[in-house]
Write a structure and sequence with these properties.
about 650 residues, alpha+beta, disordered N terminus
Amino acid sequence: MTAPHLLADSHQQPPLDPELSPYTGYTRAHWEAAADHMLAALLPYASPHRAQYRLPGRTGYHGALSDGLEGFARSFTLAACRISGAGGRDEPGSTRIRDLIERYSAGLAAGADPDHRESWPAITDGAQSMVEAAAIAIALHETRPWIWDTLPDAVRQRVATWLGGFVGAKPNDSNWRLFQVVTEEFLASVGAPHRRAEIDAGLARLDDWYRGDGWYTDGDGQKFDYYNAWTLHLYPVLWARIAGPRADGMLVTTHRERLRRFLETHQYFFGADGAPIHQGRSLTYRFAAAAPLWAGALAGATPLPPGRTRRLASGTLKHFAERGVPDEEGLLRLGWYGPFLPVTQPYSGPASPYWANKAFLGLLLPADHPVWTAREEPSPVDTADRYLALPGPGWLLHSTASDGIVRLVNHGSDHQTPTSTAKDNPHYTRFAYSTATAPETPPADEPPGPDNQIALLDVPGPSVRGRIHRLFAEGRRAASWHTRPAADNGEYARITTASVAHGPWEVRIHRVEAPAGALVREGGWAVAGDEASPVEETGPGWAAAHRQDGLTSALVALLGWEGDAPDAGCRSSVTSARGHNAYGRHSATPVLTARHPGGTRILASLVVLTADPSVYGDAQALRTGTSATVTADGSVRIVFPDGTAEQIRVTGESPV
């Protein structure tokens, strides 16, 4: 693919540099050009005094005034990276840096003036303005010589007063605590009123959520997603830049070591085509997944060679550019590739996607920094098949070099608090996510999609994997269990699942405790595209769906699906949908169903996602080449299509 919409004027796009960047062709000039294009595209939507950017699209539930502030604050982050990266100087033949300085200086003067018709909403307990205030504080710090230091005293006072609404206010008890930290630290840096106790408390709260190996949960519970990357690691780095000598040196060192440890694994989350794994909330931030890569370089806290940092970050930017992001107008819309509201939240307004601008923090590094001058180095998925168990979030990654796909097996992240009522969320409760697929997200009034889950369908009570009870994640294996609440008649269901990964294959073994006659349904990966509906195939005990480019999802019954009574045997099918998937209008998911005999039954399935024709062959070959059998001690012996054998025992407690 090409990147037709990366720049406003396609003839201005810098030439690719295959010598310096053999994997992406991108250089610093491409990042600068992308930033310029995105900033220029916003200008027609600026309010007369530049304090708001009123973009087209669905209004967030905080209202249009909040959305306008969001447009200013989030684009100011991008402008700050561009201004600081250029040293505040116009480039030859261009006045855009000076224009940016004037544009955002004017917006600050109007927005912070409570009597101005473009004034910003006040910062109050839990208000969305808290998020945007932090973005403004960071941008002001990074552009201090060119904006803050040149503002009239009266404007500086009004800005400090508006930001000072954070003092004594209560943010949400999540990543929002860090918004208070960076905003009040900026106030401290300019001699404005602040509370050191609130800064310290926010940083201390972060420690409560640390789960080891570089992983935080975003608030109490099992809330693991990209907020670990684009907030919980990023804001401590930005806070330290603002605090300077005021920062506790031991705390800064701790944050940097945690970031270093996180980046050791974060590098595995990107496909060979630059795609990030599609999991969690706020996915409309897209290439913000690259932000911690730059943060590690900014803080001197990265284990990655500089050429790999740029290959991963540029790969992500290029991945979206090649798929029409930003769009033909140069705007980031609410969606993934094209507009797609199910990847957003109700609070998301039309400017929310501009948190993607965190990906441009690399421009704060000088042009002669090794991340810009070193030759690109391969990412992990480029060179070999990989396996990585992450006990912190309860995940298992496995990727294949032949097709560049990274798959995430989920046995630990459910976005539930310790006291919340369990509910289904397709971006958290599925068994697997990848860089090539998205979960099915039908409208709220329709049943959930069948992809990457096992469910009991025609029994009383909800059948959802709302709360995940983790067991382990180690080596090439991970396991968890979940329950269905007791029905009115007292019947209870519990499903314990163990995943064993090998190459592009995953075998899922389910120990299903359920009432007799319950219809058990398991779904494989959903594949989707815009051009045409995936091709469907079914046979005895197997089903498959193929996208036009060869991406294939297959599901094969291995054990326990045959049934013990008439009409109880396995049925295979493909469920198709339209408009339910972020990867394209047409989607399809292979499905197996069977009747449960009652009591406890062991089921095993082979789940395949591949773009390598040599891996798939045909589903019948997969079925005859793969096996799962119960041994004398009750273990399940698995033989993968290449002959590799594994053995695992699934009990009511922990599989071994």
